[in-house]
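Office hours follow-up: a student asked to see two folded examples consecutively, so here they are.
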Amino acid sequence: MIRFLLRRFLSSIPVLFGIVTTVFILARVIPSDPCKATLGERATKQICDAFNKREGLDRPIIVQLGRYLNNLIHGDFGMSFSQRRPVTTIMVERLPVTIELAAFALLFAIIVGVPLGVLAAYKRNSIADAGTMIIANAGVSMPVFVLGLMLQYVFAVMLKGTVFALPPSGRLSAWLVPKPFYQQWGMSENGVLEFISNHQILNGILQWNWRLVVDASQHLILPAVAVGTIPLAIVARMTRSSVLDVLGHDYIRTARAKGLSELRVVRRHALRSAMLPVITIVGLSLGSLLGGAILTETIFSLTGVGKTLFDSITARDYAVVQGFALVVGLTFVLVNLLTDVLYAVFDPRVRPS
């Protein structure tokens, strides 16, 4: 298994190189001027000439690409044109927001979607089946911005003052000022510790600050439901289709003939075999969620990967776009590796020799 994973990861290096190269070249051949996008009305010809020379934009594309790849090997993602900060610093700030949102959304999709799909398959052509598929189709069809605004109105306006009220936007309450866990542990600050501490839920758990954990979790519920509804609907439909196919196999009839209860037949025999296509859908959904959800982050005032990428593309901030594109590509590579591992866990027939 270790050799298989290592071989898969090494074969993904050309993919990552292709992503970086493609994004690098496309960002520069599109008609645009980073100097004018960054400086606006102050962008005179003399200032832009100095800007392009300072940032190396006056050199041939192949020279710029070689310089960027050389810096990338040494862990330098470059400097943001618009924010004048290292791209790694921006990643440390913005990635945790999207990771937490993606984790909550995917957890919501799996916990709700898989049982709904199993119920619909077991109660085929019943009211429960029809109701589940109506919910799934509605989840796929409803735009995220519509669902997000509806959730905000219901839980932040209609239910305000009740125990069911939830924060409509933001990541934390204004009165809550969290401290990084490593400060309480007496550790010196570095990029890795700062990245971990920016996961507010994890940061609260590490310092036993349950008020922070609860507040951060409450702020993630509505955006996670909004962005996780489409994956939930897809997971439910895929689970139903896969379980229906498995329930018709001979070994399921054999399990029933042995006197096993229906719950055990479905849970121990049918569901395990039916999970392979569901795992594929979950893996693709996780990669997409970690790529950022622009509409959801905008509606709920969360500055994550999606909103950062949108702002950087608008500002022609090449370094930020390239850095986050590489991170998103690496995310899909790791998710594919995890999917392969889960395949082997659920089905011994696909385990590598």
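And the second, which I mentioned at the end of office hours:
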Amino acid sequence: VELGSIIKKLTAQGKSIVIITHKLKEIKNFANLCTVIRKGEYVSTVEVAQTSEEDLASLMVGRRVQLFVECERNPSGPVLLNIKNLHVKNDRQLPSVRGLDLDVHEGEILGIAGVDGNGQHELVEALVGVRKIQEGSILHKGEEMVGLSPREIAEKKIACIPEDRHKNGLVLDFSIAENSILKSYHKNPYSKWGILNPELIIDFAKTLITRFDVRPPDEKKNARHLSGGNQQKVIIGRELALNPDLLIACQPTRGLDVGAIEYVHKGLMEQRNKGKAIMLFSLELDEVLHLADRIAVISGGKIVKVFSKDEANEKNVGFYMGGGRA
């Protein structure tokens, strides 16, 4: 909001501003003219007021794009994950998650909505085993997960698209191929008796590159030299390939273009329709409202309200995100 106000004030003063973005809302809100480039080449320049978001997306991607994936509502299954009275501290050893209770069901996308810094980061790290839990219980199919190592948790078919792709998602000096098997390198068919099978690893990486349109399409390219969006595609492809029972998705479309966002949303929906559980952490409220079957609002380290799909809208979810209480 503040950025938009500044831009409008500067343009009213006769200043010229160039915005480089792939977010359609920013283009529609801020720009008068939009020049579209694709694969490094000029495509077209259009007047924004006379061009729909769908047409802008088509120019950007080179095909018609489904901006909002159709989401048929299916009854959710039994509880897969039960979180009870969870307490977790942040890096400064101050309470961050404070007595959090939450259930996640099979066959649902559970959106976690909240202003950044309300315990989401620490909650995710506790769930995947990289942050110490002070108190509470996390039951997966009735079995306690507190105290398990990250590998033991992953072996329970729990996958995670991390918030920080550089720190937690990739080894930047490893190739795309090496990063694609970070969680499965020790298993068949990628290794046997501790010896890696490079041919199968490369074949898998090529499949991932094609499926998620990773650019450049070079499995030997180091992750460090990819753009942020293409780094994210490698992580998402790797995690979905694990066919997890529970996928913890943290900002899964951050840095992606509209075409890749469409593919990720369809991938999440496919997982849900197969009976998988998904926890969607996103600062994009539109994304949460559109995809989630239920929306849990986190504020002050607690779940303060859970909405059904039909109950949730920007106004009432935003009220609880801002610290409101019934």
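Two things to take away from it. The chain has a mean pLDDT of 93. DSSP finds twelve helices and 14 strands in the chain.
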